[in-house]
Each structure stands twice: as C-alpha cells, then as structure tokens.
Amino acid sequence: EALNERLSSLTDLNVSFEFFPPSTPQMEETLWESIQRLSPLKPKFVSVTYGANSGVRDRTHKVIERIHAETELQAAPHLTLVDASDDELRQLARQYWQQGVRHIVALRGDVPAGQPNPNRYASDLVTLLKEEHDFEISVAAYPEVHPEASSAQADLINLKRKIDAGADRAITQFFFDIEAYLRFRDRCAAAGIEAEIVPGILPVTNYQQLLKFADFAKIRVPNWLHHMFDGLDDDPATRKLVGANVAIEMAKVLAKEGVSDFHFYTLNRAELSYAICHALGVRPGV
Ligand code: FAD
C-alpha cells in the first residue's frame, strides 16, 4: 500500500526509449507506430542504436532525421568509435550538431572477432565529442561488469573516467538481478560518480532470444525468471502478459528504491514499455 501511495504521488519520473534502425519496410512501419504511441508519454529523449557497418550507420541518421522532422522528441543517436577514425568521428559530430542533434549516446562498440583491441575507449569518444561541441552525452554502464573488464573495480573506474570526461548520465545494460543494480549504484556513489545511473529495462517477450542475449552479454538470468517463462515457448500471448508483469514488478521496486529515470529497450515495440510507464504513473498529459 505504501508503495502504491508513493507511486501515485510520483510526478517526477523521467523515461527514455531506445529504438534500432529498421531493415525492412514492414519493420519501419512498426517503428513509426511505436514512436507515435510512445510520444505522448513525453520521454526525456529517445535514442537510436548504431550498427558497426556503414549501411546501418546511414539508417541511424535517417531515423534521427525523421524523428526531428515529424515529432517534438529529442532524438539521440548512438555513436561507436571502433570502426571510425578520429577525423571521421569529428566530421560526424559536426554534421550531427548542424542537423540539430544535441545529445549523443557515446560507446566504444564491440571489437569484431579476430581483430586486435584498438586501445580506444568510450571515454576517448566522450572527450572528442566535447571538444567539438557541448553535446549532452550518455554512456553505457554494466551492473554485472562488462565481459572484457579486467575486474569490477577497473570497470567502475572506466565509468568514472567517462563521466569525468563530460558524460551526463550512464544507462545500464539490461539486468534482472535488482540487487546487483542497487549494489552497483551504491558502488558508483562511493566512487564519487554523481551522474544518474539509469536502469536499462528490457521488457521480455521472446524468452529464448533473451537467453541468447544474456549469455552473450554475461547477464545473470535468475531462477525466478526461468520459472516465469517455463512452458511458454509455444504460447506468445501468455508470454507477453508474463513479460509485462515481470517488468512492471521490477520497475516498481526500482522506483521504490528511489530510481527516477528509466530507459526502455523497446526493440521497436511500444506495447510493453507503454504498459510499464502506465503502471509507474507516466501517462499522456501528465
Ligand atoms: P568502454 O566504456 O570503452 O569499455 C569497454 C571495455 O574496456 C570495458 O571492459 C572497460 O572496462 C574496458 N576499458 C575501458 N577503458 C579502459 C582502459 N583505459 N584500459 C583498459 N581497459 C579499459 N553497441 C553498438 O555497436 N551500437 C550501439 O548502438 C550500442 N548501444 C548500447 C547502448 C547501451 C545502453 C549499452 C549498455 C551498450 C550498447 N552497445 C552498443 C554495446 C557496447 O558497444 C558494447 O558493450 C561494447 O563492448 C562496450 O562499449 P562501452 O561504450 O561500454 O565501452
């Protein structure tokens, strides 16, 4: 009851939505329907991911341009440094600024298998972007530690480096272990990181795909989550209801723990993110 009271009195929650560039006309339609559905919730920003090859890059630019042209939303492109020279990145940064982009999600990106570690990190990209223009910058954080980090402490120091280089907030990798997120937030505070550690919420509808993602990113899938989705492989309708319930419960606990900003990995679908926002009291016209 106390939790519900707190939720009903919350007026200061911020949400943001992440999309990826569609690769087919059908997926493009789904994306625009989702953007239209989620826009009235007045997200603080929406972000568009960035692929590692140039064809996909252009798609990111196109989505950003269309969001700017057709909506009031602040659109933040993701940008990775692994496959671009500093000169190319500077040029892109200037181009984005000219197009009205004021917020960038700055990432290293994944080093392609078999390639040597370029020894350039997201903190270098934050510095480079800040040298070009006074962008608002979000960076990535890993409550369960980035798979390549030499230790949890080294990873935390890297996050601090990114914030000290000028990043305004960290968005976390998705997680289901709420305690791990809360411990990580405490460790960030203890390390002197004052920026918001915004939880990245992944509403789950395709559990088998989630297991693959989680394995790749080394995210713990707790037993309770297995239990929730067990037996539903051939039942997408029930999976969706269960996925909404799981995410709503997680978001409520996080809100109770004082989290004020939520980032949703929408996978270009509005339904679950919309339902979670509704449960948090984030509604059109509020
Ligand atoms: P960094 O912060 O540079 O860290 C990478 C690794 O290097 C970590 O293990 C870190 O501890 C280590 N490290 C950092 N500095 C040093 C140093 N000086 N010496 C030694 N080790 C160091 N990928 C995409 O390709 N496109 C996207 O659009 C995209 N969006 C994402 C959005 C979010 C919110 C998140 C969480 C991830 C996203 N990713 C995306 C994935 C991301 O690119 C990968 O996780 C990548 O492997 C690391 O990127 P980073 O920016 O966290 O790297």
UniProtKB/TrEMBL annotation:
Domain of life: Bacteria
Catalytic activity annotation: (6S)-5-methyl-5,6,7,8-tetrahydrofolate + NAD(+) = (6R)-5,10-methylene-5,6,7,8-tetrahydrofolate + NADH + H(+)
InterPro entries: FAD-linked_oxidoreductase-like (IPR029041), Mehydrof_redctse-like (IPR003171), MTHF_reductase_bac (IPR004620)
Recorded GO MF terms: FAD binding; methylenetetrahydrofolate reductase (NADH) activity
Enzyme Commission designation: 1.5.1.54
Pathway where it operates: One-carbon metabolism; tetrahydrofolate interconversion; Amino-acid biosynthesis; L-methionine biosynthesis via de novo pathway
Keywords: Amino-acid biosynthesis, FAD, Flavoprotein, Methionine biosynthesis, NAD, Oxidoreductase
GO CC term (a single one): cytosol
Biological processes, Gene Ontology terms: methionine biosynthetic process; tetrahydrofolate interconversion
Coiled-coil parts of chain: none
Cofactor needs: FAD
Pfam families xrefs: MTHFR
Entries under SUPFAM superfamilies matching the protein: FAD-linked oxidoreductase (SSF51730)
Protein family (similarity comment): Belongs to the methylenetetrahydrofolate reductase family.
Protein name per the record: Methylenetetrahydrofolate reductase
